[in-house]
Design goal:
This protein is an alpha+beta fold. It has one domain. The chain contains five helices and two strands. The protein has a two-stranded antiparallel sheet with strand order 1-2. Strand 1 and strand 2 form a beta hairpin. The chain is elongated.
Length: 128
């Protein structure tokens, strides 16, 4: 009886890559949710400098999304602001005439450990 060895490592590698990408995408959805949560206080009144911006039309909040890509064999994710919500970037960073109203980096920094666990578990876990 002859046994024939069939190399199926490529199948395993593809499944592993797909699992990594899926985990990253689930985690990035949670990061987007976290950033959007800080921009939900209704207008009026306008937010004060140092506070997250208050929600007027929801355009800025809906322009927050993410992208994933493979770079040097590792999956990476990044938070993205679509072009129609560019004013949200101005509010985050501030300009000469607009004082900062941080909404994106602050909640991510506050929840760094939680987000790390969510990313490590493939998006499983609850945001507060």
């Amino acid at each position: 009886m002859s046994s024939k060895f069939v190399d199926r490592t490529h199948i395993f590698q593809n499944k592993l890559v797909n699992a990594q990408r899926t985990a990253l995408q689930k985690g990035m959805r949670k990061v987007v949710q976290l950033a959007k949560n800080d921009v939900r206080t209704p207008f009026p009144p306008a937010s004060r400098p140092g506070e997250p911006p208050h929600k007027r039309t929801g355009l800025g909040q809906s322009s927050i999304t993410y992208q994933t890509k493979k770079n040097r064999g590792k999956w990476e994710g990044r938070l993205v602001i679509r072009e129609q919500g560019i004013h949200m970037l101005y509010l985050e960073l501030g300009t000469r005439t607009i004082k900062r109203r941080p909404w994106m980096l602050s909640p991510i920094r506050r929840n760094r450990k939680l987000l790390g666990r969510i990313m490590a578990t493939g998006g499983k876990g609850k945001l507060k």
